[in-house]
Amino acid sequence: MRTNIGFAIALVMICTLLLVACETPKPTAAPVSPLTSSSPLMSANPTPSGPITQSLQVTPSPSKSAIVGQVFSLPGNNKPLPNTVVRLARVIWNEQKTDGAFVLEGATSPSTITDKDGHFAFKDIEPADYVIVIGDVQGSHVIISESNGKAKVYSAGKDKVLDLGTLSVQLNP
Question: What count of other Cβ atoms lies within 10 Å of the Cβ of residue 168?
């Protein structure tokens, strides 16, 4: 029985990755880099009004995490993106944490929608490593990535609020 459950979980994860990869002609997954002390965990563009954490008043429940940020559109106009879906794809690492992949599952992956000013907040999520996906995964979406093209990994710590600052993206219509 235990083997069947493990097999079923693995099968669901594989099917999810295949479905996500097949939904659009552009790739929906990217390799992830292991977290190192030099890996930036926050956006290089802090919001002009100060930390987003303070403006959203987000506090996770005990043993949970929270992630907050703000999404802006590119190119040129750099305006807040209202009513935009933001999703968290969980990173699954190999044993050495040197290689990994992320899983975005429609029914269970955390998701939220930005407010009129582009702010978003995930409260009471599981402490884990995540990749941020902005937009409609079946349409125009962006995976936040490092300058080398690999998906950027954000680590949500237990009893912590991770403030991503601003994320500027270009969503094609």
Answer: 17
Q: How wide is the angle at C-alpha 26 spanned by C-alphas 97 and 67, nearest 5°? A: 50
CB distance 131 to 144 below 8 Å: yes
Domain segments of the chain as ranges: 2-169
Q: Are 114 and 156 in contact (CB under 8 A)?
A: no
pLDDT tens digits, one per residue of 34-70: 433 222 323 333 333 445 544 567 899 999 999 999 9
Q: Closest Cα partner for 88 from 100, 105, 75, 71?
A: 105
The architecture of the domain spanning 2-169 is Sandwich (2.60)
Taking the alpha carbons at both ends of the chain, their separation in whole angstroms is 47
Q: Residue 137's closest CA among 27, 7, 14?
A: 27
